[in-house]
Amino acid sequence: MRENIANFDAASIAAIRARHPLAFQAPLSVRLRNQAAWFAFFVLTAYCFWTFDLSPARLWAGSGTLLDVASRMFPPTVGDAFNDYLWALFQTIAMAFLGTVIAAVLAVPLGLLCARNVLPVRIAQFFFRRTSDTLRGIDQVIWALIFVRAVGLGPLAGILAIIISDTGTLAKLYSEAIENAEKKQVDGIRGCGGNPLQTIRFGIIPQVLPVMLSNVLYIFESNTRSATILGIVGAGGIGFYLADRIRTMLWEEASFIMIMILIAVYVIDWISKLIRRRLIGGAAETSGGLH
Amino acid sequence: MSNETVAVWRKRAPRAELAVFAAWVLALAFTSWAFQVMTQDTIWAFVTDAPKQAADIGGRMLPPAWSYIHELWWPLWETLNIATLGTLLGIVLATPVAFLAARNTTPSRIFVRPIALFVIAASRSINSLIWALLLVAILGPGVLAGIIAIALRSIGFIGKLLYESIEEIDATQVEAIAATGASRAQVMAWGVAPQVMPTLAGISVFRWDINIRESTVLGLVGAGGIGLKLEAALGVLAWPKVTMLLIAILATVVVSEWITAAVRKRLI
User: Fold this and answer.
1) CB-CB contact of B215 with B146 (8 Å)
2) Model pLDDT, residue A287
3) Contact state of A150 with B54 under an 8 Å Cβ cutoff
4) Residue B91: its pLDDT value, please?
5) Taking burial as the number of CB atoms within 10 A of a residue's CB, which of A24, A140, B127, B255 is the most buried?
6) CA A55 vs CA A61, A186, B93, B120, B180: distances in Å
7) How far, in Å, are B117, B149, B158, B215 from residue B123 at the CA level?
8) Which residues of chain B have pLDDT under 50?
9) Is A66 exposed, middle or buried (0-12, 13-18, 19+ CB in 10 A)?
10) Residue A62: closest CA among chain B residues belongs to which residue?
């Protein structure tokens, strides 16, 4: 074999090329289409950069300022408001936690109503799905902004924003888990004469509970990250101080707050990972025990 | 007497029972603590007033100011561009970081890999709104700050998912390329890249969808897009305009989600 390959001279390669042109090159039409697509892509990108005035000169000027700001961020300094920061950080975590808990509960009925196998009525399902799409389609910060106008500045607006947007997200995740649940157990409960509520309680919920809890923990993690910014629009928490320090260009204090946020997010990620591993591990164990 | 020999069936062993009980107590304690932290700063007059306020605002929000849509095309186009160009820039920046972070492609596990992992973690932990806030202060308000904020936030997301998929590639193909005498760059181009390309495409489209959503709010801190209009409309309490803006934002998000779903279906 080895000699064979080595013995190929230019002429025989050319012969093979002539016999199987498509093995060496895509057909002309495909090549032209691909090139046209890439060309259009680059032209569009260049046009967009041009319309929004993204010149290298601007970037260069910005990078100078960036270095200046970065150097002013060190060393991170506490300032005289450490207790305020700590309190605001607790408030942020409390917002994320309470918001997630309430959303997790509210999303259960909505998730059930969105699931195809629980409510097989097309129109109702369409209505409930679009409701949850609307809730999660509008960003949390926008909800926060609206609630700040409605209930005033403070953590309440933030909690309401978290509840509203995450009810939508969790309802979607729940309904996906419910639709993936096995039918046999549902049929079993129904076969014993269980009414619809009992079917849901004993046929579906035990199957999807670990998945649901894992989703809730994931959303809690994501909320501790996103709750840090609700303060920027006045909805309570550490974001208020961060936005304030950045706007007044107190860079070393801003970097201190950012480090505090990073640590808090890490700790919560770590705890949530531990719990999630136990939950999913436990679920794997029970199903392993059955077989 | 015989009672003692009969086993009593329980759902859980005593220790497990205790653990479950403790977990519930902890959860309840944490909830009540959280509630206390929350309510300390709440002005209850506002809360009791809230349903009335909400009804009032709801009344003012309808009907939406339909004709306002003509002023929204340009901000929507800006938002779309912030998300798209930001995602593109994010992909360009995240790809090398992912290759440096993956255990099987990194040049040095001791020096380079931790740095790459730190870049990914830092980018992921800081929300794009905070990036935007920083960049508006540095570069001045405008679309550029938004694009870079989206790109910086995307590095972590794309980088993490990409390096995980690089670590899971089939090593035999890489070995086959290496055995032909290919250089390191050629191994990357012909052994690794083709295997992760579909994943990268999937991740990028996914992130683009998220970025569309995030770029609608960047304007709130001055980073361009439709958020600027929203801030302005909310600032003067022009509720019919706010409704129109919400409808426009929602429509954009729904369309982007639809496109994402269609592209992902074709990729998979």
Assistant:
1) yes
2) 33
3) yes
4) 92
5) A140
6) 10, 62, 18, 27, 44
7) 10, 10, 10, 16
8) 1
9) middle
10) B139
Q: Is the pLDDT of residue A290 over 70?
A: no
State the virtual CA torsion across B242, B244, B247, B252 in degrees, nearest 10.
-100
Is A65's CB within 8 Å of B138's CB? yes
Contact B261, B255 (CB under 8 A): no
Predicted confidence (pLDDT) at residue A289 exceeds the cutoff of 70: no
Q: What proportion of chain A, given as a percentage, has pLDDT over 70?
A: 92
What mean pLDDT comes out for the span A16-30? 80
* Averaged confidence pLDDT in chain A: 80
Q: Using CA coordinates, name the residue in chain B closest to A130.
A: B254
Q: Which pLDDT value is given to residue A151?
A: 76
Could you give the domains of chain A?
A: 15-65 (no CATH), 87-286 (1.10.3720.10)
All residues at 6 or more sequence positions from A186 whose CB lies less than 8 Å from its CB, including other chains: A117, A199, A203, A204
Show the tokens assigned to A201: 């309680």
* Chain center to CA of A142: 16
pLDDT in tens, B10-36: 777 788 888 888 888 988 888 888 887
Say if residue A209's pLDDT is above 80.
yes
Q: Do A150 and B137 touch (CB under 8 A)?
A: no
Q: Which ipTM did the prediction report?
A: 0.75
Q: Do B216 and A142 touch (CB under 8 A)?
A: yes
DSSP chain A: -HHHHHH--HHHHHHHHHH-HHHHS--HHHHHHHHHHHHHHHHHHHHHHHHTT--HHHHHHHHHHHHHHHHHT-S---TT-HHHHHHHHHHHHHHHHHHHHHHHHHHHHHHHHH-TTT---HHHHHHHHHHHHHHHHS-HHHHHHHHHHHH-SSHHHHHHHHHHHHHHHHHHHHHHHHHTS-HHHHHHHHHTT--HHHIIIIIIHHHHHHHHHHHHHHHHHHHHHHHHHHGGGTSSSTHHHHHHHHHTT-HHHHHHHHHHHHHHHHHHHHHHHHHHHHHHHHHHHHHHHH-
Two structure tokens written together for A40: 């259009």
How big is the CA angle at A276 (ends B21 and A278), to the nearest 5 degrees?
A: 60
Q: Give domain limits for chain B.
A: 72-267
On chain A, the residues whose CB falls within 8 A of the CB of B37 are 90-91, 94
Label residue A285 by pLDDT band (50, 70, 90).
Answer: very low
User: Using CB atoms, which residue from A52, A149, A246 is nearest to B144?
Assistant: A52
Return the amino acid letter for A152: G
Please give the structure tokens belonging to residue B129.
């709104």
| Confidence check: pLDDT of A36 > 80 | yes
Q: What's B72-267's CATH class?
A: mainly alpha
CB–CB contact A138 B53 (8 Å): no
Residue among A48, A139, A232 whose CB faces B133 most closely: A232
